[in-house]
Amino acid sequence: MTVLPRPDAAAHRMPVPAPVEPGLLSRALEVAGRLANDAAEVIAATAGRSVAGGLPPGAMSKADPFDWVTDTDRTLERHTRRVLAAEFPGVPVVGEEYGRDAGAADAALRWVVDPVDGTANFVAGFPWCAYSLALVDHDGPVVGVVADPGRSRLYAAARGRGVRANGVAVRVCDRDDAAGGLVCAEPPTDTLLRAARAGHAGVRVLGSSALAITQVAGGQAVAAVLQGYQEWDVAGALALALAAGAVVVDVDGRPDPMPADGMVVAAPGVVGQVLGWWRG
After folding, report:
1. Where are its TM segments located (predicted)?
2. pLDDT digits over 102-132, tens only?
């Protein structure tokens, strides 16, 4: 069997983003963390709570029968928007349930929120969903928080300050081979599944893009492969991954802090390997 050379991690080095005023970072982290704590309590209290018909309050499908929205999604996004409007007037918000504020596309800063990422899991009472919030500038995520109520974890990161899980610093795993590791995929392709199996790695489908990327930031997974997502699904988690030392590349292997159409998020030593698995 011919073994192809693995692309050097240096070929996927992330661009250096512009620095951000320290006071803004601190204030954004504090407000985002407060909102994530609020959201975690609400999600934990309402996940899988059934009413007549066996669904949480206000649950209905959107684009298809597996695309859910609930009262919890709407309530959390409205609460997030109210707080951010008071704390950061003039900074537009982009959210899953209520869309984009005017001027968000060209603004120097914008907030991006997904009140419940993994709503199908939330509706079923499966403890794998998240609240995600990020402050984004032209260079990518500046601040990000992800609340994981099912495991009572709150992740927070800011550009240049690293990432913490429940106050403890975490980083991506330090390895140069994905063998023996886990790759989160949303969704997996047959090519990726076959290649990962041949490479002695496991593939996991979690049902939450935010938590898939967060597992890389925290060192539990060596990589995450995503396609078919929206900005609000990934912005908060990408802030964590970048602050934790992960590499983010688009489908062509180009470093990009927020790819729009497919990405690999990985420990630097395995990004080329996993990208090759995905692309076949």
Report:
1. none
2. 999 999 999 999 999 998 898 888 899 999 9
Residues 6 or more apart from 146 whose CB is under 8 A from it?
36, 130, 131, 132, 154, 155, 210, 211, 214, 236, 237, 240
Give the pairing of strands 153-158 and 140-148: antiparallel
Nearest to 119 by CA among 53, 209, 33, 186: 209
Q: What is the pLDDT of residues 171-198, one digit of tens each?
A: 999 999 999 999 999 999 999 999 999 9
d(CA 96, CA 114): 6
Question: CA-CA distance, 131 to 210, in Å (whole number)?
Answer: 8
Q: Report the distance separating Cα 137 and Cα 176, nearest Å.
A: 31
Q: How far apart are the first and last CA of the chain?
A: 16
Name the pTM for this structure: 0.90
Q: What tokens does 127 get?
A: 């403890």
Is residue 246 within 8 A of residue 172, CB to CB? The reply is yes
- Distances from the Cα of 222 to the Cα of 75, 181, 203, angstroms: 34, 6, 10
Neighbours of 154 (CB within 10 A): 20
Which has the closest alpha carbon to 131: 248, 214, 48?
A: 214
Say which residue the tokens 């309530």 belong to: 75
